[in-house]
Amino acid sequence: MTAIVEARHLQKTYGKIRAVDDVSFEIKAGEIFGLLGPNGAGKTTTIRMLSGLTEPDSGEACVDGCDVVKDSVGAKQRLGVVPESSNLYGELTALENLIYMAQLYGVPKSQWINRAEELLKQFGLYERKDGRFQGFSRGMKRRLTIAAALMHRPRIVFLDEPTTGLDIMSARGLRRTIRELQQSGVSVLLTTHLIQEAEDLCSRIAVIVKGKILLVDTVEGMKQRVKETEILELELEPLNEPLLDALKAAEGVEHITLSNSRLKLYGKTIMRKLPGVIRLIESRQVDIVNIRSVTPSLEDAFVKLTGLEADIMRIDKPLKPPGGDA
Amino acid sequence: MNLSLQRAYYIACKDLKSYYLKPPLISWGLLMPVVFILAFYLRNPQGISEVAPGLIGLTLLFSSTSMAAIVITFEKRINALERLLLAPVSMQTLVLGKAAGSSAFGAVMGAAVLIMGPAVFGLSVSNIVLLLLGLVLSAVVFAFMGLLISVAVREVFEAMTLSNFFRFPMVFLCGVFFPFESLPKILKAVGLFLPLTYSVDLFRFCLLDQRSFLNPYLDVAALTAFCLILFFFINTAFMRRLREQY
Fold first, then answer.
1. Residue B80 forms contact with A (CB below 8 Å)
2. Does B12 contact chain A (CB < 8 Å)?
3. pTM
């Protein structure tokens, strides 16, 4: 497959903070490519550089053959971008918003209504086509913002944290829509801090932390990297710091994580060392409520490969208020 | 039509629909000149025609600058400007579109006062072409001024404050309420650097039996020059601001 988006050595610094540091990757035609990282990792800055909104300090990027700096209008014409905030025009109706996007992207006038109505039906908003955007729920706003990005039938769509702030049902519906987009031949660049979302949707994932891409691989490829690692999941009562320190230092334990009172011990020979681990816990007068061996998930791979706690990825970025700074 | 101009036209149409063609805004736009006309008429009914060109200039100035500054600042606040920046629209097209909406609003407000001219002021138009040219050029220059103000501010109230910082001195330095030639030399020199001076002078030429201080063609040339200079500055300032913001 040919690359539809190419980013080479992109770099962006704000003051003393390097938001994006030597980022390079390619997105192949027809794939869903994920940029996975915690909040503040540089995902949005990367997407803004690729969409011509932010000029990189150095490096270059091409979208469907158009350089995003030298021919930013050409690159924007080939893209559909769904920013983090649903920022269509509150005073306009759903239909008017879509027609305005068609006008800005040079869609022939004869297609405005048909295309807009087709998208409104596809996104379940046809009944509300004459409703003003400002009166829509968050999920409806999100769907209309995605529809607006598709008005000119782009070959590639950038989605910046598409499910942030949505309820479970809306988020599931949106993920289904993203899969349908891929099936219709559209390539998708998706930024997310949700490991499960990346695992469910993406063909390939780039893990980005502190502005740097740590690795690019398929979901299976990432899991393969930790397949030799055994994981023991424990629920202990009571759990205390001295015990955690003791477990970290126990034989066979390479790494531990604690999330929602579930303790995970990682190590290549952890199962063989299980009796020793149990003895250690019992010697501290701590009860084992639950114990099981688990297969490494993408989350486990992420934790192992980045050294970050999985919990850091579960922290949602605060939603911007309507008057929030860009 | 050229694709860029077409997109500028759509941006202007969207702004007119979303912001300008609202009853409160139209009535606000007309209220100020009506109040001024009444105030001057009650004070001196015979001399009202002398201030008519100034009142038209004043209406254009306030209508065009206010909304241009507010609309951009408001769209920055709600992130809607980002939507426009993501579209395949060059900075020049964006500036033209935003200025066109605001100038159209200002020109309509100015024209409304102008239409009252024969009935209220007893005026007759000596050169309709120059008058309409003056109306359009002035509306564009003032809209550009509003856009330039919007570059420097973050909040809507800041846009209003900064607009007034420029507008009120212009009211006194540009011959709005008294003839420009009666100003002291030093203030006259300052006034020559302000676009409202040329707008009011051109309107005086067209509406007061060609009694203007400057040559009307110089007024047109000066207003055109202000348009071009401001357009250049806004593009540069917007680009710099966006680099800082994103």
1. yes
2. no
3. 0.83
Number of H helices, E strands in chain B: 10, 0
CB-based contact, B50 to chain A, within 8 Å:
no
What is the ipTM score, two decimals?
0.86
CA nearest neighbour of A264 among A276, A277, A275: A277
The minimal CB distance from B82 to the residues A83, A103, A106 is found for: A83
Which string of b and e fits B91-107 if b means at least 16 CB within 10 Å?
bebbbbbbbbbbbbbbb
Q: What type of residue sits at position A108? A: P
Tens of pLDDT along chain B (246 residues) come to 588 899 999 999 999 988 888 888 888 778 888 887 888 778 877 777 788 888 889 999 998 998 888 888 888 888 888 899 999 999 999 999 999 999 999 999 888 888 876 667 777 788 889 999 999 999 999 999 999 998 888 888 888 888 888 888 888 888 888 888 888 889 989 999 999 999 999 999 988 877 778 899 999 999 999 999 999 999 998 888 877 777
Q: Which of A53, A100, A107 should we substitute to test contact with B (largest number of B Cβ atoms within 10 Å)?
A: A100
